[in-house]
Give the backbone structure.
Amino acid sequence: MNKDLVIIGGGPAGMAAAIAAYNNGIKDILILERNDCLGGILGQCIHNGFGLHRFNEELTGPEYSAKFEKKIKEYNIDYKLNSMVIDLTKDKKVVYVNEKEGIVEIKAKAIILAMGCRERSRGALNIPGTRPSGIYTAGAAQKFVNIKGYLPGKHIVILGSGDIGLIMARRLTLEGASVKCVCELMPYSGGLNRNIVQCLNDFNIPLKLEHTVIEIFGKERITGVTIVKVDKNRKPILSTKEYIECDCLLLSVGLIPENEIIKKAEIKKDKITGGAEVDENRQTNIEGIFECGNALHVHDLVDFVSEEAEIAGKSAAEYILQKINIKQYIKIGHDYAIRYVVPQKININKDEDIKIYFRVADTYKDVIIKLKDGEKNIISRKRPKVAPGEMEYLVINKNITNSLSGKDLFLEMVYNNEKN
């Protein structure tokens, strides 16, 4: 089978990329989705708060997804459900498998990777103790409650303060469970500030920063956990041990971009994000293969996922139509206060504004963010406060990109040493 564009993943990123590619002249598109419906994780996110930036209205996850699904069907874009991609090569061959067709190979002119991300599980944490039932990732518990109608437990401890964990603290409380506390290893929350306010503070659920679980109890079913405060080196302070009785432990300890299939294609990965290294077009080091959404780096808001996916979709269309004009790449470096920057490199002759996303390494107050071209400041922005749980961005105006020296750019932060 031959296709102009193959998109791996039919979640919010994959659908937005497909629509953008269609609007830019590519009609021969195939979306491959391993679930039994489009929409990805949005189908189980029945809380509101989606679409505020994009549609200027509050939508639930399924409502947000439905807007894109409607376009996919209106444009008659081809998609295959229950289809798992098992191989990807650098010469743009995709192999997928499903129960109706068996194993199928596609040769594509361009590929967009939009596989999303997965949750880190207990196995990655090495928590001592028994291995009873009742330990779930927050996303699995969300599916149980919102899709299946099952309550994972009545007395719950949540480890980690990622957004899904915070949202599930509220959801489980509304369903009649008792959430004893949310423990976070770091001195700051990993979720959005609005979720801390709306999901924990409004329901009087304690957030214990610099705390972690060091032991799990129970034979058949979990009966309790021991939590402990940690020092500045993240080592347990054993004198602060506290036993909490519970019948369920939820883990919200980070998301990992789903990128196993890119290894064989020799796509270069960023060690911090776990996604590919890309340029402003979201093109990887392999020409014609693009990546976007949570497979590239973990976003806070689906609105930004859609925005980034549209860049990838438009760029893939331009690549197929041979309209991409790359003249000179420069890299974007950053100082120790910034964890990562996406894109990692840009074309200095781009005739469009370029938005660069980044996350900070800690919570800082009274911040000045500077983008430097050599010794010259080309952008300077003030922020009253920045935190790792909230993605930041800068927009490089197209007039600036056309006047760059050709040297690598550097992103740095000047901040008040007193942390909040």
About this structure: The chain is about 20% helix and 35% strand. The domain at 121-253 is CATH 3.50.50.60 (FAD/NAD(P)-binding domain).
